[in-house]
Amino acid sequence: MTCAPKPGRAQVNAHGGGHRSRALDWIASSRRGGRSPATPWHSQRPSASPSHRDRVTASGQVPLVGGIFPAPVAAKVPEVIFPFWVLKLLTTAGGEATSDYLKTWGNIKGGGTEVVLFLIGLAWQFGTRRYRASAYWSLAFAIAIFGTGVSDFLHLDVGIPYAGTTLLWAVVLATIFFIWQRSEGTLSIHSITTQRREAFYWATVFATFALGTALGDFTATTLNLGYLASGILFGVVILLPPLAWKGFGLNSIAAFWMSYVVTRPLGASFADYISKPHSISGINFGDGPTAIVFAGGVLVVVAYVAFSRRDIQQPHPETETRGRQTPEHAFVRVRGPEFDVE
């Protein structure tokens, strides 16, 4: 075999030195973690390799669920403004009346309907990649119905007294809060931009609805306050967290969730007052008609916020990553117009 003579050093420098130098620089930079000598750390962008994209997409996803539903690209919950509280009260009242009406269908037919509504709302909401008023409030209404049904089932069919179901759901809610905080480091609704955080959020919402149902029935029946007096009581209680936040420095996130929990017994108490017969302190409008009225109110307000888009959370510049999944630690404080939710 005849071998070509090896090029001299001058030839290498003249013809291949540039390529060799760049190759050596690339090898050296890869050993230092993908950083070239002239590029500072803060200017680094994530690698575009498929493995990196897979890791980014998977961040914050729920096992199994993440393989079915897409990852969020923006906040999945509304901004806390006045229409938010209006809709929250309307859905709690409507959910109470609707669940009580479905109860007349029996546990299998009525309970099955509640489960179907819940699953449809869940699939619709988790199938969206950002907040959509119609999807969000459909699930909220479905949870109001289903949460009421579960809480009532534990009392009426299992036989647990209202004091017991109130304590049970209080423990469940506290447990969810503990796990959520331990996992994500925040309970802020402005951080609901990953699938895992959204799952924690809706688990919390379900527990608050069930707790509120039990608590409202406890004050109205066990304590014999009646539905109207219970509604007035919770109407006063719901004002205490924002007053404590504004005047005494109560943590804004704690203030929000305290008021959020109270909206359930507040709305449910007035719904029961309107729908229940005179013999149990109501005005006897009926469960079905009451459910229709409140459902109509929800539809009107949802249509308003959907078209006005007033309740869409505005992304903070420091939390955007130009189409990439925001890292868990990248969320910064975002001021909400109502509770200054962190």
Description:
The protein has about 350 residues and is mostly helical. The chain has one domain. It is built from eleven helices and no strands. The longest helix is centred in the middle third of the chain and has 28 residues, at about 195-220.
Query: How many strand segments?
Result: 0
How many strands, what sense, and barrel or not for the largest sheet? none
Question: In whole angstroms, how far apart are the ends?
Answer: 76 Å
Average of pLDDT:
81
Q: In one word, what is the shape?
A: globular
How would you briefly describe this protein structure?
The protein is mostly helical.
Explain the layout of strands and helices.
Blueprint: H1 9-31, H2 50-58, H3 82-103, H4 107-126, H5 133-156, H6 162-184, H7 195-222, H8 226-237, H9 240-248, H10 252-275, H11 287-308
Question: What features would you highlight for this structure?
Answer:
globular, single chain, 342 residues, 11 helices
